[in-house]
Amino acid sequence: MFDDFFIRALVAGIGVAFVTGPLGCFVIWRRLSYFGDTLAHSALLGVTLAFTMEFNIALSVFIISSLIALTLIQLQKRTNLPGDALLGLLAHSSLGVGLVVIGFLTFIRFDIMGLLFGDILAVTVDDLLIIWVGGAVILLILKLIWKPLFASTVNYELAEAEGLNPDRAKAIFTILMAAIIAISIKMVGLLLITGMLIIPAAMARNISSSPQRMVIYSIIGGLLSVILGLFTSLEFNTSSGPSIITAALFLFILSLFNIKQSIKLKN
Amino acid sequence: MNANQNILVKLKDAGFKINDKWLVQGVSLQVEKGKIVTLIGPNGSGKSTTAKIALGIYKKIEGEVEKYTNKIGYVPQKISIDWTLPLRVNDFMVLTESLKNEIIDEALSLTGVIHLKDKNLGDLSGGEFQRVLLARAISKKPELLVLDEPVQGVDFTGEIALYELIKKISDELNCGILLISHDLHTVMSATDHVVCLNGHVCCSGTPMDVAKNNEYKALFGEQASQILSRYEHRHDHIHTDEGKIKKN
User: Fold this and answer.
1) Most buried pick, A76, A190, B7, B116, via CB within 10 A?
2) What is the enclosing helix (H) or strand (E) of B248?
3) Quick check: is B34 in a domain?
4) Of the partner residues A157, A162, A214, the one whose CB lies closest to the CB of residue B86
5) Which residues in chain B have Cβ-Cβ distances shorter than 8 Å to A158?
6) What residue of A is the nearest CA neighbor of B133?
């Protein structure tokens, strides 16, 4: 069944969408879009590391992204630079260093476009395993920390005062962000991962009235984007990442037209 | 060691500073089951800071805090909620603890906002939101309630009703309450212990003790002192459960 590259890509994309849905909601709620970008850009370093050391890509991306997240926390404590400047610094310098290292690795044939924008041809059966097992673990952990994470997103002091330990939840969430980037990099590509996190969740925000519904709509939006995007990618021979993101954008634009309201007006 | 089983939280010589500026210093107080402790003092005297020390929100503190309960309900003075979240009153009620529907309804009814249950939190008025905050704090049946100006922005009749509710909750749940308030009239009538702050504890004791204290007079003026004494003087009746007034 998984012999066909397109089926593999579809199964991989569906797995990714299940995880980016809920995580993306938190990225929006906690205003972490640029943090996500930074982690994603640093993933390139992780990929080069994987190639030089002949290491698993997802694992090395996960390690490098986690390290970058820790570095960011340390830099925030030790410098007076504003958060967005630090994020930009880490994002672009890690991307820069990653590309320079790739330049040195002339002995390996590199598909840079595939790395940056995703490549459905590259998804292997091993990748499917990583995505589905990794994704299940991410979702399970997210479910466990949901209460403190959500409460502290609404109000940190309430969560802290009522004994929910929000700092621990935040640290775990950072690790989960690194993990989702690691497992989805092959599908969406490192430049567009944050889009996969944000756009379906933004679409869901437009049409939902409660946090639970936003998570569900965000997952559905992600699934539709993956399916639509991958078929487009197959049909027009475009990169998978941009195709998925374009499909997500299309859904977002649709969500701007409030369907319920227009029905009410007609009646 | 908790020598007195009734103590819920105890501050010993506690203080907190930011950038070498003390927000509050040398505060000792304790809240016991079924007792209401009220913090009063001018703006910037460290009332909210003291509450946050007691709650463990501020961690790098001077002195000691001993907390003997984790069942805490908190109504903060300021709360900024990010409206990127789609959040209804109902979702907010279960923010820190999952509750049964009847319990949520009961708490919202007590504070008079049951009709707002499915409304978006961002659409509430200041007073309505304050009532929801109070409902959320009491719904989880806490052992310790920390209320930082819980009736701000609530209309006049509502204010009296909510203070009566707070007193009732303290009796029914036998929970301890740490209350911060500006309303000397209402607060003093229900309070067991008053701590008057001005960067440090300027005086403390029963409402009558504090009213007679010279430092308190200097801080709030002669008039405030008269309010308290007068209130105590007029207090010749009790409120029964049915809300009737009974002469002593």
Assistant:
1) A190
2) none
3) yes
4) A214
5) 74, 76, 79, 95-96
6) A158
* Cα distances (angstroms) measured from residue A152 to each of A27, A147, B105, B207: 14, 8, 24, 37
User: Which of A29, A208, A213 comes nearest B82 by C-beta?
Assistant: A29
DSSP B57: S
| Dist CA A3 CA B87 (whole Å) | 45
The residue written with tokens 């709360």 in the block is B79
Q: Which of B70, B73, B86 sits opposite A205 (nearest CB)?
A: B86
pTM: 0.85
CB of A213 within 8 Å of a chain B CB? The answer is yes
Phi and psi at residue B16, to the nearest 5°: -145, 135
> In a structure prediction context, what are the per-residue pLDDT tens digits for chain B, which is 248 residues long?
455 778 899 999 999 988 888 898 889 999 999 889 999 888 888 899 999 999 999 988 888 899 888 899 999 988 877 777 889 999 999 999 999 999 999 999 989 899 999 999 888 888 899 999 999 999 989 999 999 998 888 888 888 888 888 888 888 888 999 999 877 776 667 788 888 888 888 888 888 787 777 777 777 776 666 665 544 444 445 545 554 555 55
Q: Is residue B4 part of a domain?
A: yes
| ipTM of this complex prediction, to 2 decimal places | 0.80
The bridge status of strand B201-205 relative to strand B7-18 is unpaired
Task: Choose among A231, A208, A233: nearest CA to A220.
Answer: A208
CB pairs under 8 A between A and B: 73
- How far apart CA A156 and CA B227 sit, in angstroms, is 38
Calculate ∠ Cα B245-B247-B248, nearest 5°: 130
Any domain includes B59: yes
The domain spanning residue B30 has which CATH number?
3.40.50.300
Number of domains in chain B: 1
Enumerate domains of chain A plus CATH numbers.
5-266 (1.10.3470.10)
* Cα–Cα distance, B140 to B90 (Å, whole number): 14
**Does A48 contact chain B (CB < 8 Å)?**
no
What single-letter DSSP state applies at residue A108? S
Q: What is the DSSP letter of B160?
A: H
In a domain, B121, yes or no: no
* CB contact at 8 A, A182 and A234: no
Backbone angles phi, psi at B70, to 5 degrees: -115, 0
